[in-house]
Specification:
The chain is α/β, with parallel strands linked by helices and 310 residues long. The protein is 25% helix and 15% strand. It is built from ten helices and 13 strands. Helix 4 links the parallel strand 7 and strand 8.
Length: 310
C-alpha cells in the first residue's frame, strides 16, 4: 500500500455529517464529510478525529495493537500495548500446528485482558497501521467481541491517520490498572475451525484476502505448501483501503465483493495466512451488511498442512 499524504485541513476541526442508508437490518452505512466525499462508517469503526476527542476520558481505553517496539517510538499517551500473538495461543509449537494461533480459552483470555486493563464496561479503541501491517487491530477487535466486549472500535487509518489529523501521537505507552473481567464462554458467531470448514465446505463462499502472489502460490511465511483453498476468490486485504490508509466507503467495498460473486446472502468464510488480515475483513463485511461471515482463525498456515489446495 502506498504511503499516505497529508490530509487537507485538520480533521479535528471538520464536522462530519452522518446519514444512514439501511438496506434492511445490518445494511451498509454511508458516512459523508462536510465536503461531500464519502468515507467508511460502521459500529466498529471510529474516525481519527472522533477518537482524538476521547483521549483522557475515564471510561475509554486506547490499545496500540502494533506491539511494544513500534509503540515505544510514539503512541497515544498512556495507551495499553499488545499484539495479536500475545492474545493468541502462540507460545508453544509453530504456525500450522493444530493448537497454534487460536483464541485462548475463556480463563486464559480473561487473564491476558485483565493485564491490559480491558473490560466490557470500557470503550476500547484499537490502533493499528494499515499501510504497513496485517490488520492486527482488526484481529484484536474480533477477539474482544468473542470475549463479550461490544463497545470496541478500530481507528480508521490507524495511528498515522490520527497523526495526520493533528492528534498527538508521540506519547509513551501506559501500564493500565488491571481490570476485572471473567469470561465464561466465547462468542464464536464469526469464527470457524478447520474441522467445521472441512465438514461444510460446499456451503460456504471462500474469500482469500492475501496478496495475489500468495494466492497464486508464493510461500512467503513458511507455509507448508503454496496455493489457495479450492474455489476461493481472491480479494486482497489491501484493496479495501484508499491511498492514505483509510477504508474505502461501504458502497465501494460492497461492490468489490459483489463483482467477485460474493453475495450478502452467502455464508462467507474469509482467510489469510494466520487469521489476522481476514479478521479485519470479516468485521468490514459485517458492517457492509453481510450477516453470515466467518474468520478462519488458523487460515492458510493450518490448511496448508491438512487440506487440499489449488
Amino acid at each position: 500500500m502506498r504511503k499516505r499524504g497529508k490530509r487537507a485541513g485538520t480533521a479535528l476541526a471538520g464536522a462530519i455529517l452522518l446519514s444512514v442508508m439501511a438496506a434492511g437490518c445490518g445494511g451498509p452505512i454511508k458516512s459523508e464529510k462536510a465536503d461531500g466525499t464519502s468515507e467508511f462508517a460502521g459500529e466498529f469503526i471510529i474516525s481519527p478525529s472522533e477518537a482524538g476527542e476521547k483521549i483522557g476520558e475515564a471510561d475509554v481505553l486506547f490499545v496500540d495493537a502494533r506491539g511494544q517496539e513500534l509503540a515505544a517510538k510514539g503512541t497515544i499517551e498512556g495507551a495499553a500495548v499488545t499484539d495479536w500473538p500475545s492474545l493468541s495461543t502462540c507460545e508453544k509449537g509453530q504456525a500450522g500446528d493444530a493448537d497454534w494461533g487460536l483464541v485462548p480459552t475463556p480463563q486464559d483470555l480473561s487473564g491476558r485482558l485483565q493485564r491490559l486493563g480491558i473490560s466490557p464496561e470500557k470503550e476500547i479503541i484499537v490502533l493499528g497501521q494499515p499501510e504497513d501491517g496485517w490488520g492486527e487491530d482488526g484481529r484484536i477487535v474480533w477477539e474482544l467481541r468473542q470475549a463479550g466486549c461490544e463497545n470496541v472500535k478500530i481507528v480508521d487509518g490507524g495511528i498515522t491517520a490520527m497523526k495526520d489529523s493533528g492528534v498527538p501521537t508521540d506519547g509513551s505507552p501506559g501500564k493500565p490498572e488491571e481490570s476485572v473481567i471473567d469470561i465464561q464462554s466465547l462468542d464464536k458467531s464469526h469464527d470457524i475451525t478447520t474441522e467445521e470448514l472441512q465438514a461444510g465446505y460446499q456451503g460456504y463462499t471462500i474469500v482469500d484476502v492475501r496478496t495475489v502472489k500468495e494466492y497464486e502460490g508464493a510461500r512467503l511465511y513458511d507455509e507448508a505448501q503454496g496455493g489457495h483453498l479450492p474455489g476461493a476468490v481472491n480479494i486482497p486485504y489491501t484493496d479495501l483501503f484508499q491511498a492514505d490508509g483509510t477504508l474505502k466507503d461501504n458502497e465501494t467495498i460492497t461492490k468489490m465483493f459483489e463483482d467477485k460473486g460474493v453475495k450478502r446472502s452467502d455464508k462467507v468464510v474469509v482467510y489469510c495466512t494466520g487469521g489476522i488480515r481476514s479478521a479485519y475483513v470479516q468485521l468490514v463485511l459485517e458492517m457492509c451488511g453481510y450477516e453470515n461471515t466467518y474468520n478462519y482463525c488458523q487460515s492458510f498456515w493450518r490448511w496448508a498442512v491438512v487440506g487440499e489446495v489449488e
